[in-house]
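Morning, I've got a small favour to ask if you have a moment. I've dropped the whole record in just underneath, so have a look.
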Amino acid sequence: MPIPTIALTTVAISALGVLCAQPAAAMTTGNPVISELAPSGPGGSRDEYLELHNDGDNPVSIGGWRLYACDSASSPSLMTTFPAGTILAARGELGQYLLLAGDEYLGRSEHPGPQSPDIWYSFDTSASDGWMLTDRYNRRVDGIGTGTGEGCDDNPLVPRCRWGDAESATRDFRARADADGYVCGPASPTNSMG
């Protein structure tokens, strides 16, 4: 009879000096999604942001994960790699969101709510019409598209929002039957403190 094994991600010594181990699933079973996108804003094509949200009941470590911009003319282009130790808290807890913004993002003055970015990027996404989130093994986790020619496979397309009028495409979590459902509405970016 084979001996059962368990994958370990963290080993710690408790206050009693007992060696404790956490199963790998403890930090990988959240549900990180691209929850809101504004590929441009009142400040122009580089006044952009993308919001991640953990819609799962457990926290998830996204250190080493990547965000790509996509277009129909080339392979996905790396925008950023999340730093080691980046964790999205469980749904309903502080830290369940992460806000990424382009270097010309005007969020502090133009958008309501907690809008100071957690991560800035300088990648020019003005030619992009799709975005893709991958895990540290470069497996696709989620994606979103704004055009039919976008180069990230299987991305749900968002409706055409009035980006220049401070609208964004927001994932509608109430529509559980259509988990990829996005709606246009007032931009409401939320960072890790929101």
